[in-house]
């Protein structure tokens, strides 16, 4: 199905989305951003958003990996960044996602070559949790293996496919903002545009797995409801010890989701 969507709609979507993103925000977008106005510039997102191209892949991998390794609370608590083997493994995982993803880039309008935010969207299927377990079993690095196991739980346990009675959802798999560009509404802007992209692609539901309290707040502002949550201290190993304990306020994993066409849901 994914290949069919890409082949049938990708060219028209790319041109159409660029024109949409170039316009000023809708009334609903303004309402959300106005509520966040202390952290924005001139009441709007100080960036230009575009669909990623194949040539952007190396820069995207490097950008997302750097943010995850050094600033994502779960990854930091697992000390994944301490192993070069983990770094390459994480980069490989991101690299595998990109060819079949729908990725949005936020770039500096003055320096268009500079990425200030990334939202990697993908098709989420009910077997993704199992595939993450299989990937974890093949991973030699213990820290990265634990991370993949946690991600597999987050993918499978909420049972969103069964809840929404659907074979696939649009998932905002990775949302990352440059450290020196945070608190300006870029993450919210990318999330809103990802939701619009999912709707344009014909998806009926969108999900966002939040292992960080800040991303959970962004998801809520974008209109996604929390459908599942678990405290980090409930994720324990064979010795009943917590696998990861990120620093507060990152005490829970939360999975947010929403119906894109609520009137069509029975």
Automatic annotation (TrEMBL):
Gene3D superfamilies: 3.40.630.30
Domain of life: Eukaryota
Protein name per the record: N-acetyltransferase domain-containing protein
InterPro entries, alphabetized: Acyl_CoA_acyltransferase (IPR016181)
GO molecular function, one term: N-acetyltransferase activity
CDD domains: NAT_SF
């Amino acid at each position: 199905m994914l290949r069919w969507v890409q082949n049938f709609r990708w060219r028209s979507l790319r041109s159409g989305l660029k024109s949409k993103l170039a316009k000023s925000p809708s009334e609903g977008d303004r309402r959300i951003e106005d509520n966040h106005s202390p952290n924005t510039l001139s009441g709007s997102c100080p960036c230009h958003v575009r669909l990623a191209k194949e040539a952007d892949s190396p820069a995207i991998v490097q950008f997302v990996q750097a943010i995850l390794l050094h600033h994502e609370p779960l990854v930091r608590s697992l000390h994944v960044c301490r192993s070069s083997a983990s770094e390459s493994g994480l980069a490989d995982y991101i690299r595998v996602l990109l060819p079949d993803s729908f990725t949005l880039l936020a770039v500096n309008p003055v320096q268009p070559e500079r990425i200030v935010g990334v939202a990697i969207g993908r098709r989420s299927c009910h077997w993704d949790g199992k595939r993450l377990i299989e990937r974890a079993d093949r991973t030699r690095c213990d820290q990265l293996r634990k991370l993949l196991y946690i991600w597999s739980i987050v993918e499978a346990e909420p049972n969103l496919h069964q809840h929404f009675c659907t074979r696939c959802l649009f998932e905002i798999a990775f949302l990352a903002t440059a450290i020196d560009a945070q608190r300006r509404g870029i993450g919210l802007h990318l999330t809103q545009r990802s939701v619009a992209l999912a709707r344009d692609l014909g998806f009926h539901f969108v999900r966002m797995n939040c292992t960080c309290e800040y991303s959970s707040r962004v998801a809520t502002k974008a209109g996604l409801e929390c459908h599942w949550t678990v405290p980090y201290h409930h994720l324990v190993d064979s010795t009943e010890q917590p696998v990861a304990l990120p620093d507060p306020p990152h005490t829970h994993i939360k999975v947010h989701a929403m119906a894109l066409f609520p009137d069509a849901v029975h």
